[in-house]
Input
Amino acid sequence: MEKAFVSLAELQAEVQYLKVQQFKQEEVLKEKLSSPKEIFKAVTSLFKSDTGKRQSFTSELMNQDLITNITRVILPLLLNGVVFKKSGFIVKTLMTFISQKAATQVNSHTLSGLVDKVTGIFKKKDAQKPGKVAVVRDYGIPLDSETY
Output
């Protein structure tokens, strides 16, 4: 949100107001994260579903597309087998849990969007090359043909 300031006094008043707001927000965060129980609650709230209705594991798997189900298997294997190869049981368990949660966010739409972005980068680079003249090839109907 951008504001237009007419005078220096208005700008200084806005800076002071933002400093007060920052101080209030810091105090609220310190209050929320004052004990280990509150920190644990904040971390576990990140993994809870927002829908409020609980689905069974099988119905949750059936409602996901094929890409999501594949990443739910491949991502933990890749992380535990390659990235965290020499780590302990607890780290591998945590990584499996986190990768399962991350895999639910990957679906065919996000994957196709990512592929479109990557191909868009390469298409832009090809179009920006100087000295490259676009060749127009028309294999259509000749003007002197008898079709019209």
